[in-house]
């Protein structure tokens, strides 16, 4: 038996290789109200439970979500392609490939990313998962906060 599989005298289960190809990954649209939004939930497919990693495509005029902020979960977005616009408490901010933004948990900076261009924009969005401890606020909506 491989010595690397032993931990404190116990035998650990050998992990399978979780290698995937984005082009063969299912894209979700139904969980989001904006028809120009689609995402592939990469971390969940790979069996990760501590954080999410989503490959997001925004068609022209689509947005990532309603403007929101998280009490208990960090959020991060990296622009892979296109020229989307970040809208937060400080206004509108043009973004381009290579730009990234972070939203620390508990910071009341309502935000979302909108594609105001005439071409698709692609993002990699990463966020921590704190089920049972999370509350999401929607400063522009007439509902919420939502507890997860």
Question: How is this structure best described in words?
Answer:
The chain has 148 residues and is an all-beta fold. The chain has a domain at 53-140: Jelly Rolls. The chain has one helix at residues 42-45, and strands spanning 6-7, 10-11, 37-41, 51-58, 69-70, 75-81, 85-88, 91-94, 100-103, 112-114, 121-128, 135-137, 146-147. The strands form four sheets. It has a five-stranded antiparallel beta sheet. It has a three-stranded antiparallel beta sheet with strand order 5-12-13, with no helix packed on it. β1 and β2 (10-11) form a beta hairpin. It is globular and about 55 Å long. The termini are far apart.
Topology readout:
Layout: E1 6-7, E2 10-11, E3 37-41, H1 42-45, E4 51-58, E5 69-70, E6 75-81, E7 85-88, E8 91-94, E9 100-103, E10 112-114, E11 121-128, E12 135-137, E13 146-147
Antiparallel strand pairs: 1-2, 3-4, 4-11, 5-12, 6-9, 6-11, 7-8, 7-10, 12-13
Brief sketch in words of this structure:
This protein is mostly beta strands. The chain is built from 1 helix and 13 strands. The strands form 4 sheets. It has a 5-stranded antiparallel sheet with strand order 3-4-11-6-9. The protein has a 3-stranded antiparallel sheet with strand order 5-12-13, with no helix packed on it. A 3-stranded antiparallel sheet has the order 8-7-10, with no helix packed on it.
